[in-house]
Predict the structure.
Amino acid sequence: NAGVTQTPKFQVLKTGQSMTLQCAQDMNHNSMYWYRQDPGMGLRLIYYSASEGTTDKGEVPNGYNVSRLNKREFSLRLESAAPSQTSVYFCASSSSGGGETQYFGPGTRLLVL
Amino acid sequence: SQQGEEDPQALSIQEGENATMNCSYKTSINNLQWYRQNSGRGLVHLILIRSNEREKHSGRLRVTLDTSKKSSSLLITASRAADTASYFCATASGYSTLTFGKGTMLLVSP
């Protein structure tokens, strides 16, 4: 039981490049989330998917797109990376939406030059 | 926007001492959760307390919730060096997703 996995662990991009962060969970959870964590800012929700086939914007969605590929996988895409998107990105899942306990992946550290 | 606000921002104690950190929030909640984050790692769920509960225990952790004051506290008893981490409260309101605070950094020195 791997829980929530994320790839890659580290990435360096140049401004304007694109990339996709991958997330998968093996807990048969319905809901999945993408957060970013910046120093002194705590966790901020980028997008979430309450169930397969649905996605919704969170607090800071600008510059990002998401795809809920199937029940297991939820990807985050940066179409044209900017230095302001330098951050640590966490994927999480929960059995259902709302205020259920969330289970987090190990994170992806992204540096945009 | 942040709903929960942890206090203090940082806390430094010796092994064996108790650590108390607080969380205040603004709107009514369904439940409040505490998470731990070791440096560079993902968050790990510690405990969930529902709005109709006042106190909950899990091992060396004790969580209290005062809905009249819109506040919660996390007590870690007999702290160990391995408890060194950041601790976040997260609130659940209505059908919304969790909202996380900015965290308390706990340093436990041997």
